[in-house]
From TrEMBL:
GO cellular component assignments: membrane
Keyword Membrane attached: yes
Annotated InterPro entries: PMP3
Protein name stated in the entry: YqaE/Pmp3 family membrane protein
Residue ranges crossing the lipid bilayer per the database entry: 20-44
Cellular localisation: Membrane
Keyword Transmembrane tagged: yes
Phylogenetic classification of the source organism: Bacteria, Pseudomonadati, Bacteroidota, Flavobacteriia, Flavobacteriales
Length: 65
């Protein structure tokens, strides 16, 4: 998924169900200069989503005890 976020940033958002964000990212990605910010944006968003999942699983684990 990280490689997709680098080479096709809009697909990274699209696969995670963020359609409007994917369209905005695609518009940014169309320009050559906008490709780097779009890739960075997709990578940061992907890392935040992974961190949110880890946090939710930790909260569930604590609540089960």
């Amino acid at each position: 998924m990280t490689l997709i976020a680098i080479f096709f940033p809009f697909l990274s958002f699209l696969f995670r169900g963020r359609i409007i964000t994917a369209v905005i990212c695609l518009l940014l990605q169309i320009t050559l200069i906008g490709w780097i910010p779009a890739a960075v944006w997709a990578l940061i968003s992907l890392q935040n989503a992974r961190a949110d999942k880890r946090t939710e699983s930790l909260i569930r684990a604590v609540n089960e005890k």
